[in-house]
Amino acid sequence: xNILVGVAELAPLAxxxxxxxxxxxxxxxxxxxxxxxxVVLPKYRAIDVGAHGFQPTDRVVEVPMGWWREYARLWxxxxxxxxxxxxxxENADYYEREGIYGTxxxxxxxxxxxxxxxxxxFEVASVLEFSPDIVHAHDYHTALAMPLLKLFYxxxxxxxxxxxxxxxHNIAFQGVxxxxxxxxxxxxxxxxFYPGSPWEYFGAVNMLKVGILYADKIATVSxxxxxxIRSTPLGEGLQGVLNVRGEDVVGILNGVDYTEWDPAHxxxxxxxxxxxxxxxxQLNKRRLLSEWAGLSEPELHRNAxxxxxxxxxTEQKGIDLVCHTLERLVAELGICFALLGSGASRYExxxxxxxxxxxxxxxxxxxxxxxxxxxxxxxxxxxLMPSRYEPCGLTxxxxxRYGTIPIVRAVGGLRDTVRQxxxxxxxxxxxxxxxxxxxxxxxxxxxxxxxxNVQPHWEQLRRNAMACDFSARRSAEQYLQLFEWALERVxxxxx
Length: 495
Ligand code: ADP
Ligand code: GLC
Prior knowledge:
Elements: E1 2-6, H1 18-32, E2 36-42, E3 55-65, E4 68-78, E5 85-90, H2 92-95, H3 110-127, E6 134-138, H4 139-143, H5 145-151, E7 163-168, E8 176-177, H6 179-186, E9 205-206, H7 207-214, E10 217-220, H8 223-231, H9 239-245, E11 249-251, H10 279-292, H11 297-301, E12 306-313, H12 319-333, E13 336-343, H13 345-357, E14 362-366, H14 370-379, E15 382-385, H15 395-401, E16 405-409, H16 412-417, E17 431-433, H17 438-449, H18 457-467, H19 472-494
Parallel strand pairs: 1-2, 1-6, 2-5, 6-7, 7-10, 10-11, 12-13, 12-15, 13-14, 15-16, 16-17
Antiparallel strand pairs: 3-4, 4-5, 8-9
Helix pairs in contact: 1-19, 5-7, 10-14, 12-13, 12-17
The protein binds adenosine-5'-diphosphate (ADP) and alpha-D-glucopyranose (GLC).
Residues 17-19, 21, 310-312, 340-342, 368-370, 373, 392-395 line the site of adenosine-5'-diphosphate.
């Protein structure tokens, strides 16, 4: 199949969170399976084009935006360790800025920046003579590619048989914006904007809603999240819209790229290890705690359990719960805690306070740091992920491969991927709690700690965790099946 992917993030070029990893893993798998994949994303200032071997070309795409046209120069390269073609759109006005989305609230013109990306997708395909079977959009950023395909581009022979598939990685971000701004840029007449139409959402335009209504198939990143967004407030107001699409909505669990995340071949780890050499994990813990955290030999000797978190510091990730619970856990249970995170300053302030008060137990670093992310996931005994909601979550999947036991809230993809350890049968590989309360979190942590270094449970837990297989191969195959169904739908509509 020919798969055209439009996305705002792609690891390792431009990454804020799991979206970048998930899309890169899928693209690599499809290409290994013999499919042709073209990924289009903005050329953000932060992308190190030199390091990744990207070259400018003399090709320029013209992108219709309302009555006028805007332009982007194409840079071409490949996704590292793959043959996936990647096209970067150079447009200084839109993308030559700090970061990917802007500050906490996002850039005021994100609607327009991402409309440009969604539309450029088709123009790039034309210029590069790529005829996609599937246009695969991700989140609100490229959701508008779905109506663009159905309303404008399918009249071009190249896209006549193309199906549109939209993956929702996080429904909390919907791209709600001013109709007076966006509709003229899209070329949608005002008559289309009335209550009950795809374009109208409480007096605004909701980019994700429109995408959902025009996509041939809609995926989200875990089966439980697929249910939650249709049936609970986690749908953030789009439950009804999703239910209109009913059987076209499916949950496909994200997969892991084990070439990037495997303790036996991890270039960031001081000591590689595997299930055959578990002492290697302990050595990584020692190295992290002595070199990064500065613990002395007697302090290391105590070998306190180490809880780790690598996370965006947002409400989604349950950081409020951690703020309510962590100090007592540290003070009363004597645990160590390592955090790498970036996000809201109020959360950073809390962790800064805790790290200064318990300087021998709590270690934190803020900002984005790929190497440290790998080191913490490898060194920690437990990974904490008490999310308020979690569409899929990749960090817990990485932790499993590194023998790091997840303690998670039973929501979304966390519920689908973490199985409670049962000391009677020796089955399971983590610890879950249901209620979003400090008591529930504390209970789960205490229960998990009761197995720390207690044999045979500890060894069994780690072995079970490391034996889990959440490889991206399976997700890639499930998507191909979904693509077939999407193509069938297009054929049926044409007939
Ligand atoms: P989300 O996409 O909601 O942030 P995921 O668990 O799916 O959650 O993916 C998070 C990804 O981002 C993981 O690859 C994780 O290692 C990475 N990550 C999160 N915060 C940081 C950080 N501060 N530095 C480096 N990597 C980070
Ligand atoms: C989003 C979600 C996360 C998911 C990731 C990749 O960022 O918050 O749960 O794993 O997308 O799909």
